[in-house]
Amino acid sequence: MKTKPIHYLVVISLICALSGFLGAQPPAHTLNDPTRPIYHLVSQDKRSHIADPNFAFYWKGRYHLYFIAARNPVTKERNFAHVSSTDMVNWKYHRETNFGGLSGTLFLSPDGVPTIIGKASKQITLHRPLDDQLEHWELLTEVVPTFGPGQDGKRMSEKHWDPDAWVEGNTTYILITAHPLSPKGQPALFKTTDMKTFHFVDYFLDVDVPGVARTSDIKTNDDLSCPSFFPIGNKWMMLCISHNKGCRYYLGDWKDEKFIPDYHGWMNWHKGDVDSRYGHGGDVFAPESLLAPDGRRVMWAWLFAQSKVRVSPNWQEVLSLPRELSLPEDGVLRIQPLRELEQLRYNLKTEKNIRVEAGTPYRLKKISGDTMELMLTISQGEAERYGVKILCDSTNGKGLDVVVDPKAKILQVGVTRAPLELKEKEEIQLRIFIDRSVVEVFANDRQAVAWQHVYELGDAGVCLFSEGGAMEVPEVKAWDMKAALPEVADLSPEGSK
Known about the structure:
Layout: H1 4-22, H2 28-31, E1 53-59, E2 62-71, E3 78-85, E4 92-97, E5 104-108, E6 114-120, E7 123-129, E8 137-143, E9 161-168, E10 171-177, E11 188-192, E12 199-203, E13 225-232, E14 235-242, E15 246-255, E16 258-266, E17 284-291, E18 297-304, E19 317-319, E20 323-326, E21 334-337, E22 345-356, E23 362-368, E24 371-379, E25 385-392, E26 400-405, E27 410-413, E28 416-419, E29 428-435, E30 438-443, E31 447-452, E32 461-467, E33 471-481
Antiparallel strand pairs: 1-2, 2-3, 3-4, 5-6, 6-7, 7-8, 9-10, 10-11, 11-12, 13-14, 14-15, 15-16, 17-18, 18-19, 18-20, 20-21, 22-33, 23-32, 24-29, 24-33, 25-26, 25-32, 26-27, 27-28, 29-30, 30-31
């Protein structure tokens, strides 16, 4: 008789685990959590662990996005949450699904059918949808790629992941990362014309880019994972990560079935002395992008607080705001917040013609809040370092510093330091998105920094500060931001009922 309570506890524990996996509705106290972001994509239920965005795609009037949401307690396979939207701001949740793999890409095949390419064990899998809502999928084929002369027949080991695909004419190119036969951890390039047989082309990169290692040893060097390869401006971009340094990208030329990069940049930045899961730090990881019907390239990233001090037990991992990427004639990548986010604005507040003396912080009189978009233009004047403190408490002055240091060529958010070079006498425009426990800062459309943080809210004021001389602030605008709560849906994974 003494064993019955234990049995009951086991059963109850399994029921609880399965109910979380099957997608229980969000409890009211979760939605009222003061640290829960209201216009970033988060897990619909109380489960905080979401991860890599995948399979971003526009299809028949809706934008679709999947992201790693949970691990099946029975099969241990990862499930993908699925959301769709008409504007990339307000999302509808669909039921979760499982492709039997880890990651991949959704692309339009030569015959005009949305197709998922993913990694499953030692195979590359292709799936096609059974409906226009992209909720139900069937396995098209499983392929074991073989390599060049003398390597035919060698099977892929399980040390490969993150396939990417794009189409040119009747040819589909397949990029497979981190496979064991690549020199220096290079991705392998394959192609197919029948979606059944993959033919090895070559290794993907043609030259070394200064300052970037390409070995696949993630403990000490860079690897090339989560690739998204696409044309932008007059170049091609490979958006990717290394596991030890986070989100980054290459720009270069795609010619004769070879990618020749001529520039390398980062989207993830060092966090000073803050402890991180990976060696370099930063919160921006696992990028994913799509091409909108109007030609815009839009990306998301997985934001997660790598510090040992967590933001909240529930919301330490969210998806970034969608970002528009473009490459004008000057060759400098532009990163802008999605223009559709402006529909969330309301209750505009403005303050103008502010002079901030060195060493004397100026607290804005009309503007405060923890869910708002803040836009300000700063004229450097005689200031050496300057910026804004958000979520600023009126009693102790604590808050999150956003600092511009023209001499050091640095934009600093908290302890995260990102490069930003300003031209002589160039004004800086900051767009700061505050969403409770996550902040994203955009500077002159040339830099973007995300920060997940811990703070005591206080009265969430905004303070301007200057060091080494006075600065001028012609105008500050702020909007409160509406919640972009998703439609509640049945989240039960396909096949669970």
